[in-house]
Write a structure and sequence with these properties.
By secondary structure, the chain is α+β, with helices and mostly antiparallel strands. The chain has a single domain (about 15-235), classed as Ribosomal Protein S5, domain 2. Helices cover about 30% and strands about 30% of the residues. It contains 4 helices and 9 strands. The strands form 2 sheets. The protein has a 5-stranded mixed β-sheet with strand order 1-2-3-5-4. Strand 4, helix 1 (about 85-100) and strand 5 form a beta-alpha-beta unit.
């Protein structure tokens, strides 16, 4: 399979709008090709039970992820009572990624909840969710610094994520839905701007893959992540 509209290593257009939500402590809308994701940050004076007796008190960050019903070609049923297995997997990935670049010691006794809502899905929603979550945290951090609520910058690294894979024998970066459903290999690479890996999720869909191909795909993901951050950095301020 060869793309007709973009090079195999070319990203879809990506735009970020910080401060999209009026009421949240931090927010950002990410438009990545036809995928659109809104992330909001809520900061509350409470902790989960396993952290309540910590000395000194630490902060915590958690993430929730949801597909809106018509974010997909056919209506997605709302998960009213419990998050399904795929949803739990994605929100745990987003939470781990965002915690890895947030100095939670600066949020003693507080919980940061990052809500990630997919408005429109065309592949790469978990990666777009991580980028939107990072942008929303950046927006929240800017506001906390300006207001004097924080005296130190709480984000330790720039963060992004991207999907990479093999479709029809061709290595691709930033898979859209039509490519994702046909992929022989599908990985999600989460990393910092300086190339430090946080997580690589996925693997061979149809057959084992060689170590050489795996390394090649991860390397292409790291290159793409630097490009993503170079693109969105001017908008984050």
């Amino acid at each position: 399979m060869i793309r007709h509209q973009r090079h195999p290593q070319q990203l879809r257009e990506i735009r970020v709008t910080p401060g999209f939500s009026r009421y949240a402590e931090g927010s950002a809308l990410v438009e990545w090709g036809f995928t659109k994701v809104l992330a909001t940050v809520t900061i509350e004076n409470k902790l989960p039970p396993h952290l309540r007796n910590g000395k000194p008190p630490l902060g915590w960050l958690t993430a929730e992820y949801s597909l809106l019903p018509r974010s997909t070609q056919e209506r997605t049923q709302r998960e009213r009572l419990y998050a399904g297995g795929r949803t739990q997997e994605i929100q745990r990935l987003i939470g781990r990624a965002l915690r890895s670049v947030t100095d939670l010691s600066l949020f003693g006794g507080k919980t940061l909840t990052v809500d990630v809502d997919v408005l429109e899905a065309d592949g790469g929603t978990r990666c777009a969710g991580i980028v939107a979550g990072y942008a929303a945290l950046h927006h929240a951090a800017n506001r906390l610094i300006v207001s004097g609520a924080l005296s130190e910058w709480p984000l330790t690294h720039e963060l992004a994520a991207v999907s990479v894979g093999v479709v029809g024998g061709t290595p691709l970066v930033d898979l859209e839905y039509a490519e994702d459903v046909r992929a022989e290999v599908d990985l999600n690479v989460v990393a910092t701007a300086d190339g430090q890996l946080i997580e690589v999720q996925g693997g061979g869909e149809e057959r084992p893959i060689s170590a050489e191909l795996y390394v090649q795909l991860v390397a292409s993901g790291l290159t793409a992540i630097k490009q993503i951050l170079d693109t969105i950095r001017p908008r984050l301020g």
